[in-house]
Design a protein that fits this description.
Distance between the termini: 29 Å
Order of helices and strands: HH
Strand content: under 5%
Shape: globular
Number of helices: 2
Largest sheet: none
Number of strands: 0
Structural class: mainly alpha
Radius of gyration: 14 Å
Amino acid sequence: MGTPEPSVAEYIAQCQRILERSGLTYKGAPRIATDIRIGTRVDRDLSSGGGNDGKVKRVEEILARDQK
């Protein structure tokens, strides 16, 4: 995405906010096309087997701040 930081959680959270405000139904859609380019983090050690759980948790924490 060409961001100055390695984390894109703030950007994903903003996309989530926009989708929720739009009223669009996006869960359970019959078909979604997505193009993703994935790179390897070399700036820190990552735990193996963690999957995306930590990333999802980070976005949920950011969105939870909106509720306060």
